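Re: beginner question about structure tokens

> Can someone show what the tokenized structure looks like for a real chain? I only ever see the sequence side.

Sure, here's an example I had lying around. Input first:
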Amino acid sequence: MKEVQINKLKKKYTPSFKAKVALEAIKEEKSSGELANEYQVHPGQIRNWKATAKKGFIDIFTDNRKNKGQEKDELIQELYRQIGKLKVEIDWLKKNLGLSHKKRLLLIDKTNREITVSRQSELLGISRSIIYYKPVID
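And the corresponding structure tokens:
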């Protein structure tokens, strides 16, 4: 069974078909003319697939694991940072559950560098504008 899709006048071959033909060409047991006849593909196309496959082999054997490992380590570090931040927020919030609005307002710590005032107000369900409000005295 041929692995070909004919789209108007242009044939499109699946990657697995190309790989199969390219590997046959690399083995050099048959000439590109014989392979072309067998697979109904132009000999020039087979030579192109063979060259592409040989170039691809170089990429397969280069050490991309280092780059992937570095990206993975960076992702892990970022996730640990986010987990740490969320843990601090949860611990802070647990201490302040079940309080009245006035008591929750008193819990806002403007000097806390780990949780911003904006995030504290969001966690406590307080409007941020009320934190900065100063009544006008006549």
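Each token stands for a local structural state, so reading them left to right follows the chain. The helical segments are 15-27, 32-39, 43-61, 65-95, 101-106, 117-124, 128-132.
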